[in-house]
Design brief:
327 residues, alpha/beta
């Protein structure tokens, strides 16, 4: 089986259920977005929600995807930067517990954290303070980190550090890895569209986007956006929520359904979709089954709070893999 290396923001997710969306307006956080905030603002969000129940878990988009792959017994590693503090230790321990090889660097500042505010309709809004995660830079990357892997998965949030992203994809290609990128929040895509276009065209093999991210990048609705994205890379995936997902390679397009699920929290749904899809590629499954595996993982993760599932969930998922087909 192919081995997969991930790189992204090493964050601890602070999951918080909110009773209504008024608090989002009060905190000036657009619903469904990922907003980068300074430490003071992060503290203000925490203070405004300190009366609500919280859960902590290691997170970050690419780390969530790598976690999903590791739980399906794929050999994985993760590159990120953490602080020498309790959050950093929790993040590292989370990787090791899941069987992920940590390729972590350390900073003298505090580890990053993402306050995830989960609305009653399961939509989540992030106020993310990157902390040490933002200090990951191009000088931290060496060719040796990319050897002995077949795939490199990177989160779109990394696009905000142009030099880092460019060095990463160049090293991946020099070591013959297929590059997979999951586009970030639509606002991140909008802010970095001019830079992101050539990167996708020249280095990316597999691209994941939800419909808002795809529209931010192409200006088009899901179908035409899929066509435009597929013209830039080998495999394009556009996730369209309750309608499923669209997958295209060359002239072949697949419409993928969803599984029946009771949505509690959509955090990690896209990340785990990518994990299922990439797992299918490592097993040389046809693209429609890869998409269906993505839907299987996404459907299960939205039934729990946060982007981690217990052993019983994973046992159930593994039992479904030989039979899943949602096309």
């Amino acid at each position: 089986m192919a081995r997969i290396l991930g790189m992204g923001n090493a964050l601890v997710d602070i999951m918080t259920r909110i009773p209504d969306d008024a608090i989002l307006e009060e905190l000036e956080l657009p619903k469904g977005s990922m907003q980068l905030v300074d430490l003071e603002t992060s503290g203000r969000v925490l203070k405004a929600t300190d009366h609500l129940e919280r859960q902590l878990a290691s997170g970050g988009s690419a780390a969530n995807t790598i976690y999903g792959l590791a739980m399906l017994d794929v050999e994985t590693a993760f590159i990120g930067k953490i602080g020498n503090d309790e959050y950093g230790e929790a993040f590292r321990n989370g990787l090791v517990k899941s069987g992920i090889v940590p390729q972590l660097l350390y900073s003298e500042i505090h580890s990053g954290r993402a306050v995830a505010l989960v609305s009653r309709d399961s939509e989540r809004t992030f106020a993310t303070h990157l902390g040490a995660a933002v200090e990951l830079n191009a000088d931290d990357l060496q060719a040796s980190q990319f050897r002995n892997f077949e795939y490199f998965h990177i989160e779109g949030y990394m696009v905000q550090n142009h030099e880092l992203l460019m060095k990463a994809v160049i090293l991946a290609k020099e070591n013959n890895l297929k590059v997979s990128i999951d586009m970030a929040s639509y606002n991140v895509v909008e802010e970095n569209k001019l830079f992101l276009g050539p990167v996708v065209r020249d280095y990316v093999d597999i691209l994941f986007a939800n419909e808002e991210e795809a529209k931010a990048f192409t200006g088009l609705e899901p179908g035409p956006a899929l066509d435009k994205l597929a013209a830039l890379c080998d495999i394009a995936v556009v996730k369209i929520g309750e309608k499923g997902s669209l997958v295209k390679q060359g002239e072949n397009t697949y419409e993928i359904g969803i599984i029946n699920a009771e949505s509690v929290d959509t955090t990690g749904a896209g990340d785990l979709y990518a994990a299922g899809f990439l797992y299918g590629l490592t097993e040389n499954y046809p693209l429609d089954k890869c998409g269906s595996l993505g839907a299987l993982l996404a459907g299960n993760i939205i039934e729990v709070i946060g982007a981690k599932m217990d052993d019983s969930k994973w046992t159930h998922i593994r039992s479904q893999i030989p039979h899943i087909n949602l096309t």
